UniProtKB/TrEMBL annotation:
<dbReference type="InterPro" id="IPR017473">
    <property type="entry name" value="Undecaprenyl-P_gluc_Ptfrase"/>
</dbReference>
<feature type="transmembrane region" description="Helical">
    <location>
        <begin position="109"/>
        <end position="127"/>
    </location>
</feature>
<feature type="transmembrane region" description="Helical">
    <location>
        <begin position="83"/>
        <end position="103"/>
    </location>
</feature>
<keyword id="KW-0472">Membrane</keyword>
<feature type="transmembrane region" description="Helical">
    <location>
        <begin position="51"/>
        <end position="71"/>
    </location>
</feature>
<keyword id="KW-1133">Transmembrane helix</keyword>
<keyword id="KW-0812">Transmembrane</keyword>
<feature type="domain" description="Bacterial sugar transferase">
    <location>
        <begin position="280"/>
        <end position="461"/>
    </location>
</feature>
<dbReference type="InterPro" id="IPR017475">
    <property type="entry name" value="EPS_sugar_tfrase"/>
</dbReference>
<dbReference type="GO" id="GO:0016020">
    <property type="term" value="C:membrane"/>
</dbReference>
<feature type="transmembrane region" description="Helical">
    <location>
        <begin position="285"/>
        <end position="306"/>
    </location>
</feature>
<dbReference type="Pfam" id="PF13727">
    <property type="entry name" value="CoA_binding_3"/>
</dbReference>
<dbReference type="InterPro" id="IPR003362">
    <property type="entry name" value="Bact_transf"/>
</dbReference>
<comment type="similarity">
    <text>Belongs to the bacterial sugar transferase family.</text>
</comment>
<dbReference type="GO" id="GO:0016780">
    <property type="term" value="F:phosphotransferase activity, for other substituted phosphate groups"/>
</dbReference>
<dbReference type="InterPro" id="IPR036291">
    <property type="entry name" value="NAD(P)-bd_dom_sf"/>
</dbReference>
<protein>
    <submittedName>
        <fullName>Sugar transferase involved in lipopolysaccharide synthesis</fullName>
    </submittedName>
</protein>
């Protein structure tokens, strides 16, 4: 029944999305070609051609909405996350449409109209999803669309789960009560204790229950088996909270399997997912090529000035520790005198470091010395955004001094990172830096990378990053 309701709800969402995409395109066509806002008299394509374009746009957008999780149940998904995914899905959609039109040499479609379509469809979809959430929330506050739960286990695990449910009414859950063998019938923090697991069958027949949440310790596996058997006999869905859930780090647990054997990763790392890894790597390659082309004049001038202002090589290579704790050569424009480079292998570089040349101080302050690292990105040693890589000497030192330091090596190191744009760069608190690195690793999204990328420019111009 629950699955059929969800399928019907998703069908309605798909229908609304089709209507919105269609309405957005028609509105964009009207604004561009009929309204007085554009009085240039241009009419390169008739309305029928744009309506035909919906044959490409609608299935593409629906697939992207599905890919970005916009048809998942609303109860367990925050609106901010959905808001972000709507923007990303629509951005990818319009980019793909324009790429296809360009490839097929369909150059007569109005770019202004497509831009208006993108803005309109994004805004309307945000309003649609926000309105649906508001309607559902109002319905739940009036007792509609509510799911009733029974929690088996009134100990600390069950109480923690109950507190989450009670504290967030928009989830649309209501707790009928606890079932526990060690608490007498009565009241536990405002939630009734309905009986023991031996009375489970009678309790399920007496109370309206949609789901049973099992919050028992692992040592009670016999009781867990019995409860599951009874719930399946009654046709009621069960979910288990592992009593070691506090060991699972990060934003959410990550479940895997090996030939049918379930595995729980204790730390969820989004970039372990093949799709996320592919998206990030593809963007790294495309952006690195583009940036290297754009800054090539700057790099050429920098190379000449490095050679003129100080004898020695133009590019300085240094061993750093990257993803999987593998060492690689990182590339920079040389900013120090050659006779001090060896001393720099085990010493921090400070703002007024006497080892720097005058021109070296300038390129370090403006981060121009980091530009050759886009070659590291193309090689696959680094990413544009990620934790900054450190020298082996410091990795060995910090591994023993700072808990969880080595977690940063789960992903590719970056030219810029969350810690750096937050101000933790160079000779600053390594503890704060690692906190930011772990936050980035556990909460990675494409949106997070975009945010850090643009914050880097602000950091460069405001604080000499």
């Amino acid at each position: 029944m629950i699955k059929s309701n969800q399928r019907f709800f998703n069908f309605i969402l798909v229908l609304f999305d089709i209507i919105i995409v269609t309405a957005a395109l028609l509105f964009a066509w009207y604004i561009r070609f009929v309204s007085p806002f554009f009085d240039d008299g241009v009419r390169t394509m008739n309305l029928g051609s744009y309506i035909d374009l919906l044959g490409l746009i609608i299935p593409l957008y629906l697939l992207l909405f599905l890919f970005f999780g916009l048809y998942q149940p609303y109860r367990k998904q925050r609106f901010f996350k959905e808001f972000r995914e709507i923007i990303l899905a629509n951005s990818f959609g319009i980019a793909i449409v324009m790429s296809i039109l360009f490839t097929m040499k369909s150059i007569h479609f109005s770019r202004y109209m497509l831009g208006i379509f993108f803005l309109t469809s994004t805004l309307l979809m945000i309003l649609e999803r926000g309105s649906i959430r508001k309607i559902l929330r109002m319905a739940r506050e009036r007792g509609f669309n509510i799911k009733y739960l029974i929690i088996v286990g009134a100990g600390s695990i069950g109480q923690t789960f109950a507190a989450k449910i009670v504290g967030d009414r928009q989830l649309g859950y209501k707790i009928s009560g606890y079932v526990d063998d060690y608490y007498h019938k009565g009241d536990k923090d405002g939630i009734p204790v309905l009986g023991t697991t031996r009375e489970m069958n009678e309790i399920l027949e007496e109370y309206q229950v949609d789901e049973v949440i099992i919050a028992l310790p692992n040592t009670s596996y016999k009781r867990i088996d019995e409860v599951i058997d009874i719930c399946e006999y009654q046709g009621i869905k069960t979910q288990i909270i592992p009593d070691y859930f506090h060991l699972i780090q990060g934003t959410k647990p990550y479940f895997d399997e090996l030939d049918g054997i379930p595995l729980i990763n204790t730390r969820y790392i989004p970039l372990d997912q093949p799709v996320n890894k592919w998206i990030k790597r593809s963007l790294d390659i495309m952006l690195s090529i583009l940036i290297l082309i754009l800054v090539s004049p700057i790099m050429l001038i920098t190379a000449i000035l490095v050679k003129i202002t100080s004898p020695g090589p133009i590019i300085y290579k240094q061993i750093r520790v990257g993803m999987g704790r593998k060492e690689f050569w990182i590339y920079k424009f040389r900013s120090m005198r050659c006779d001090t480079s060896i001393a720099g292998e085990t010493g921090w570089t400070t703002e007024n470091d006497p080892r720097k040349t005058k021109f070296g101080a300038f390129i370090r302050k403006t981060s121009i010395d980091e530009l050759p690292q886009f070659m590291n990105v193309l090689k696959g040693d680094m990413s544009i955004v990620g934790p900054r890589p450190e020298r082996p000497h410091y990795v060995t030192q910090f591994q023993h001094e700072i808990p969880k330091y080595m977690i940063k090596h789960h992903v590719r190191p970056g030219i810029t990172g969350w810690a750096q744009v937050k101000g933790w760069r160079g000779d600053t608190s390594i503890h704060k830096r690692i906190e930011c690195d772990i936050e980035y690793i556990e909460k990675w999204t494409l949106w997070f990378d975009i945010k850090v990328f643009f914050m880097t420019f602000k950091a460069v111009f405001e604080s000499g990053y």
